[in-house]
Amino acid sequence: MAWYDEAVFYHIYPLGLTGAPANNSYGEVEHRLNALTPWISHIREIGCNALYIGPLFESVGHGYETTDYKKLDSRLGDNKDLTDFVTECHKQGIKVILDGVFNHTGRDFFAFKDIQQNRENSQYKDWYCNVNFYGNTEYNDGFSYENWGGYNLLVKLNQHNPAVRDYICDVIRFWVSEFDIDGIRLDAADVLDFNYMQSLRQVANEVKPDFWLMGEVIHGDYSRWVNEGTLHSVTNYQLHKALYSGHNDHNYFEIAHTVKRLYEMGGNRPNGFKLYNFVDNHDVERIYTKLNNKAHFTPVHILEYTLPGVPSIYYGSEFGIEGHKEKFSDASLRPALDLNDYKDALKNNSFTRLIAALGKTRQNCKALSYGDYKELLLMNRQYAFSRNYNGESIVVTLNNDDSDYTMTLPAGSAAEYVGALSGEKVSVNNGNICVNVRANSGEIWLPVTDGNTYVPDITPVEATTTSTNSAAEAATESAHKAQDTTPVTEPPITRETAAKTPVPEDTKSNKITSEKEIPADDKSLATAGNTASQEKSTSAAPKVTSTEGSVFDAEQLAYEKGKIAGLQEAILAIMEKNGPVTDQMRKDVTDNVYHDSLINWVKSFH
Known about the structure:
Oligo-1,6-glucosidase, domain 2, TIM Barrel
């Protein structure tokens, strides 16, 4: 077991977060990195124990056109600033990995400058790919060369050249000795030479115990990169795509199929793959922007933190900010943020509280890091699976539908389970738990052993957060508007209720809304629902256990189901009066089996 097996990452793009100029004048050093020191405690407070930060080293622009691998970008500070920053991270229990841009350099890198000056006589002419002194570029160099991504600003290194390999390996040794880092994220690893990466892995094995190499890989068979001889992990772009499109399309089959394929790719073993899971980063749009239904922010992140792999949150997304990808600029994905604008986020921002609860749950539940993966239920809009480790079985339930859904699922050996996000408790009966999964939400059900289990101590607040950051404010307020449509008898859509705070009785037992809560015009419909339910109720002998452990007979259960059926009939009757009712409309009604939701549906007709 290594530190990265239990890591929960926070990802920072430092030039953006600190508001550094887009272009480097190579002038006076500006100590902007020091402004990120307060973020370290924030990272820890939201349940992260590792930081991926980069690019950091001297470059001319966005950071990936490296000028000097051994010097902190002068827009961020000097090397002492970086040493101090990593030291403080370690003091607060946070591991640090940096961006390693080893596929290409910038044009201001010393080796390229030497070729410009000495041409054919340069000792570095073989450091780059396909240098042609009979060609030219838009920079009028008088020679051409192979670039990366079609940009001559990024000059592709010749990774087959032993001198290049030796130099880059020396860079890694320098970063460890100078800054005491814990790993490297290899930029553009999907185009790196495999022998080159194997050389980097050998150095990683030498410089520090559990030194982690993670590569940026978009497509392909991840096992080509993730193995004992190459990299420890790669970016899980396959799951990234499935997480947002699976929710936008109400298609949990896409997500489950992706998880199964990746799990098989890792040999169907819990430790076969530890891929770097993310829902957004510095190159793609913010997850809040990509989601058609903003309420899906919750189930998306529950999946990210509970599926096999290493979860990561991109700075600012824990506040629910937006970020649109533009055609010629990624600046909107890499904004400057002031942490003071979010100083009360853990108290007032439902997004932040959710991320913190997930992070702390992940850190405290070994099964989420080491457990196997077993699919328990799969439909377009509902999904459940378990993570099992050392006799402990954690059950995860998801629902991307606008109505609540009840699941009966196999559980572990514990007699009772508790929801990590809600504090709600359910009893195990005949090896199963029966749970209500809120609309557009989810839950992590943890086994209670000897009366003890871990539940994050997150205090619930009203969904009325605001921010002085305009982008975050717009995003957060939009989300709260969506959340505020939730019936007042139900908790906020993110389900952040403290474990120490009693769950309201109406949410515990699916309590029927009282007549005084229904507008006068709707009372007849409620009465019709109750009458129809009585006609449909039947008596049955078996005893069943509710989510709170109270015992009632099946006759009462049938009576409650009858009320649901009566309300469904009443809603369909109104819909038929308003116009034709399609099969899908009828299915939407019959699939909704939660009483309070049906009552509010009735209210919506007025």
